[in-house]
Amino acid sequence: MAQIPTIYFICGAGLGSSLACQMEAEEVLASHKVRAKLEHESVSSVAGLKTDVIVSAESFRPQIEKYEIDPSVTIVYLHNIVDKNEITEKLVPAIAGREV
Amino acid sequence: MSASLSQLVTDDHVVLGASADTWQEAIRQAALPLLRSQAVTEEYVGRMIDVVDQFGPYIVLAPGVALAHAQPDGSVSRTSMSAATLPRGVDFGKSEHDPVRLVFCLAAQDSTSHLEALKAFVQIIRAPESVERLIAAASPQEFSSGLVPTDA
């Protein structure tokens, strides 16, 4: 059974910038032929998340690091959440190898 | 049904030539049309400011452009967006993207009704010439015509 990895995009409200980031990432992943399930949520929901990868802005690092997150989850922090180059550089290696 | 960007940012939701000394004031200016049309409550405006207080200026998504937004929690009566141009600019504290000269406010009632609009928004703000065109708009109509992505 092929397992498609899940990526959660996190921001303060879970519907503005996280979604903007998700859209950019969608294009990046498609151009690298990486399959993944993309979701977005607010930072307050991070604790209970079942996911493979979490993507968020650097400014949420202190908040996210407070939670006990399953060590198997890769967390990617971005300086510029709509910068395709940064997304490519950080997210593509994070997802590589998770697709079975 | 997801609304397009120009459907959400209606002519009466555009504030041209605003001026603000602080980023808080800039968000308030940009949010005025949403309050006026009762799309959101005063509480929602306060929450958009709280988000930045708490997590920093991550809402500044591109050079000169901020997307203010917060979790609705009943303070949004309908999905809508507003925008303000601030020709003098205001610093949000994100050095690589300051000064901000274009502030959008997003009020989403649910997690899907603003999808199309946000997609267009992202396409527009990543093109510096499109951002400049919006900032230079002389009328709300001219502003609206800049909200249609060209590379879609």
UniProtKB/TrEMBL annotation, chain A:
Gene3D superfamilies: 3.40.50.2300. SUPFAM superfamilies: PTS system IIB component-like. Keywords: Transferase. Pfam families: PTS_IIB. The keyword Transferase applies. Transmembrane segments: none annotated. InterPro entries: PTS_EIIB-like_sf, PTS_EIIB_2/3. Residues 7-91 form the Phosphotransferase system EIIB component type 2/3 domain. This is PTS system ascorbate-specific IIB component. The lineage of its organism: Bacteria, Bacillati, Actinomycetota, Actinomycetes, Micrococcales.
From TrEMBL, chain B:
It is found in: Cytoplasm. CDD domains: PTS_IIA_fru. Keywords: Cytoplasm, Kinase, Phosphoprotein, Phosphotransferase system, Transferase, Transport. The keyword Phosphoprotein applies. Its main location: cytoplasm. Pfam families: PTS_EIIA_2. Residues 7-150 form the PTS EIIA type-2 domain. Gene3D superfamilies: Mannitol-specific EII, Chain A. InterPro entries: Ascorbate-PTS_EIIA_comp, PTrfase/Anion_transptr, PTS_EIIA_type-2_dom. The phosphoenolpyruvate-dependent sugar phosphotransferase system (sugar PTS), a major carbohydrate active transport system, catalyzes the phosphorylation of incoming sugar substrates concomitantly with their translocation across the cell membrane. The enzyme II UlaABC PTS system is involved in ascorbate transport. This is Ascorbate-specific PTS system EIIA component. It comes from Brachybacterium fresconis.
